[in-house]
Backbone:
């Protein structure tokens, strides 16, 4: 039986007249890598802060690792959206300080910190003051601070923001390693392809409400592909209107970058029939049923028009 | 999983406290500001004294006194010997009431040691027609000065026709130092008086002895009938010293607490900390950490003060009971100041915003400084009694009262101030913790005092 690392029941949080979180129910399975996605100001960071017991819900209950959030603090690692370090503290000292706060004994701390610095390629930084590091290096130090105590649950709020591609790949690999080692990871982002690449489960939050909570497999099954991409041999944009006239096609659009027509298919039509009809209509180079992306799901559920940010600093 | 210990609240509080202490005390800023700066200031004062002494040029030359009687010059010569100048200075310093009770001889000896060497020859001229010739000598610098004494000045009643005091004229070169001019001025004036006294046939030394004001020995009698020496210094300066010690020790730490809380909020490290500790643990850790900083300052300056009093043979002015009460009031004062500073620091975004929130409480805390004289002079007066029950000024006023040596404070008042004061400390901590809990995660516009009250209710 799958147990839940995080369990939220009918959780509400208000800031003055703003309802940041509106009656969310949530179960994050043990050992999962769950992505919290949603537009800016959707309530992601507020939900995370309640899981971390940094703020408390106005209504509802929050259980983390089978206990209340406060007593589980030592078993949780947290990388907040807004990064913060003691500027004048040295890297080694800062990481030891955070590890001590998280309950690690003093013995063996140096070795543990050094091992992590080596993993993130920051071995030279241990004696440097935090203010001497680049933004990317500071972010890696913060990442270490959130995982140094080997937590069972790791919450990462926008872990890739501000990282160059090389460092983003490094952190991506570390997150996968932690997941492979059995840790439960909650990963918040508004960049869909990152979530799609990393997560096995997605929770979509919009305007303080959970509007999607499913595994990636379930999402792919539920949001079956409705776009057929046809690349005519002629590469003639006029072919798009001919393809648009096929039965079951609701809309046809020419994609000049791919030299292909993108056909949106009606819900009750089998895509295979449209693909066969396209081949029969004209000589084609490729015909492809496009896979549903998280972007597509997001746009379908949230809509093109994003809500304006209602709570400053909170996602 | 890691070999994790359970991080108890006490361990977390201590970890935070130790970090705050270490990163405040073992820093160049603290070492310079709290330790080196006072030493530098004392050294600078001593160095300035030495430089003034080194700059002294010897006083040598001739002073001419135009006086028909020919008596003033001889007395002026007596007054301008190095021994007499030093003696006059010592007497002047001893007469200064502010220095009574201090090791006065040291002060006067130091002061006279800084006198320049004196070799002044006084020449008497009875022919008043030589004035122009002697003026020219003063002008070209070959004379130290020229004193013109009219015969009427030596009369028993030296007044003009309108009844005004007569004056004598002293002409000095343009480059004459003010200190030298003053010395000549006083010496000639005294010489004129001596000449006048001699003319009426009286002995100046006997007359001076007759006119000397006696020293006063004030004995203060308590209501129980016991008598004690009155000590002006103990009565006024000692309570102020104790109160300022308390003020410096608590406000230096309070200022650190305010700025570091604002910094942690601005640098976003606050949320990282709050993922590991509760707001209450963070607040307690910070308060304990800066309490240690405060204790270091109190211990350091307090020990210096007591050592200074002992060196001046005034150690008996500070009783052990006084010191214990001082420590208790220090705890109270620090609790008031630190809670206030931490909660304000958590609620604002920068020091400028903090200033407007702290000002009302600071006005109350300025009360003991503004009222130190009436409180220390009359520690049982109505001003002292009323102000010692106004939080958060309670500990500062009470320290003024209990260290004022001239009156005993009723025990019930001390006990009541402790009970009342610590009850208020509890209220401050309760409200401060609530503000801190809400404030640390708040960004944007700083709260008004009314909003702070709302935070206390909602947290």
Residues:
């Amino acid at each position: 039986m799958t147990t839940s690392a995080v369990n939220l029941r009918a959780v509400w949080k208000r800031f003055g007249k703003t309802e940041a979180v509106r009656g969310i129910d949530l179960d994050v399975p043990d050992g999962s890598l769950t992505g919290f996605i949603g537009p800016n100001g959707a309530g992601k960071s507020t939900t995370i802060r309640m899981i971390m017991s940094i703020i408390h819900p106005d209504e509802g209950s929050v259980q983390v690792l089978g206990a209340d959030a406060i007593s589980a603090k030592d078993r949780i690692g947290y990388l907040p959206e807004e990064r913060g370090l003691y500027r004048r503290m040295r890297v080694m000292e800062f990481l030891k300080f955070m590890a001590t706060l998280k309950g690690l004994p003093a013995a063996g701390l140096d070795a543990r910190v050094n091992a992590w610095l080596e993993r993130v390629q920051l071995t030279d930084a241990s004696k440097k003051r935090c203010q001497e590091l680049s933004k990317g290096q500071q972010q890696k130090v913060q990442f270490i601070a959130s995982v140094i105590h080997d937590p069972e649950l790791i919450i990462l709020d926008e872990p890739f923001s501000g990282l160059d591609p090389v460092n983003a790949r490094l952190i991506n690999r570390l997150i996968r390693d932690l997941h492979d080692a059995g840790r439960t990871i909650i990963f918040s982002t508004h960049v869909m392809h990152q979530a799609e690449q990393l997560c096995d489960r997605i929770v979509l939050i919009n305007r303080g409400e959970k509007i999607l909570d499913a595994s990636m497999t379930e999402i792919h099954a539920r949001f079956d592909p409705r776009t057929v991409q046809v690349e005519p041999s002629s590469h003639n944009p006029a072919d798009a209107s001919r393809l648009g006239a096929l039965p079951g096609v609701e809309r046809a659009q020419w994609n000049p970058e791919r030299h292909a027509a993108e056909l949106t298919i009606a819900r009750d039509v089998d895509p295979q029939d449209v693909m066969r009809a396209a081949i029969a209509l004209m000589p084609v180079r490729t015909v492809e049923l496009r896979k549903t992306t998280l972007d597509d799901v997001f746009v379908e559920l949230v809509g093109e028009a994003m809500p304006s940010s209602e709570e400053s600093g909170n996602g | 999983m890691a070999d994790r210990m359970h991080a108890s609240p006490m361990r977390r509080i201590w970890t935070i406290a130790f970090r705050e202490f270490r990163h405040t005390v073992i820093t160049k800023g603290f070492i310079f500001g709290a330790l080196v700066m006072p030493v530098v200031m004392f050294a600078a004062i001593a160095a300035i004294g030495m430089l003034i002494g080194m700059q002294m040029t010897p006083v040598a030359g001739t002073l001419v006194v135009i006086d028909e009687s020919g008596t003033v010059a001889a007395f002026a010569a007596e007054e301008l010997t190095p021994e007499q100048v030093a003696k006059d200075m010592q007497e002047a310093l001893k007469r200064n009431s502010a220095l009574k009770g201090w090791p006065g001889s040291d002060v006067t000896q130091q002061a006279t040691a800084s006198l320049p060497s004196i070799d002044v020859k006084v020449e008497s001229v009875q022919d008043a027609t030589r004035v122009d010739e002697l003026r020219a000598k003063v002008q070209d610098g070959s004379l130290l000065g020229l004193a013109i004494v009219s015969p009427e000045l030596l009369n028993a009643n030296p007044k003009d026709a309108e009844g005004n005091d007569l004056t004598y004229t002293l002409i000095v070169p343009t480059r004459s130092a003010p200190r030298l001019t003053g010395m000549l001025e006083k010496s000639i004036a005294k010489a004129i008086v001596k000449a006048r006294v001699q003319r009426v046939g009286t002995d100046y030394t006997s007359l001076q002895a007759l006119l000397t004001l006696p020293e006063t020995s004030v004995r203060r009698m308590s209501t129980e009938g016991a008598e004690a020496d009155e000590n002006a210094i103990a009565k006024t300066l000692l309570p102020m010293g104790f109160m300022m010690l308390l003020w410096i020790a608590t406000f230096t730490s309070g200022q650190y607490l305010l700025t570091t809380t604002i910094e942690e909020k601005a640098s976003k490290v606050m949320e990282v900390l709050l993922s590991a500790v509760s707001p209450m643990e963070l607040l307690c850790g910070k308060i304990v950490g800066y309490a240690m900083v405060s204790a270091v300052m109190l211990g350091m300056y307090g020990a210096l003060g007591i050592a200074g009093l002992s060196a001046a043979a005034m150690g008996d002015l500070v009783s052990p009971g006084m010191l214990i009460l001082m420590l208790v009031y220090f705890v109270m004062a620090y609790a008031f100041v630190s809670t206030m500073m931490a909660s304000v620091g958590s609620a604002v975004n920068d020091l400028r915003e903090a200033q407007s929130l702290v000002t009302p409480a600071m006005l109350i805390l300025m009360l003991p400084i503004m009222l130190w004289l009436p409180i220390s002079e009359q520690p049982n007066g109505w001003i002292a009694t009323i102000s010692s029950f106004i939080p958060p000024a309670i500990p500062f006023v009470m320290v003024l009262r209990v260290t004022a040596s001239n009156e005993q404070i009723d025990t019930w008042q001390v006990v009541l101030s402790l009970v009342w004061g610590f009850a208020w400390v509890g209220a401050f901590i309760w409200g401060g913790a609530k503000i801190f809990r809400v404030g640390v995660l708040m960004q944007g516009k700083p709260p008004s005092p009314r909003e702070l009250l709302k935070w206390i209710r909602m947290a």
Summary: Chain B has two domains: 59-94+112-206, 231-458. The longest strand of chain B covers residues 59-67.
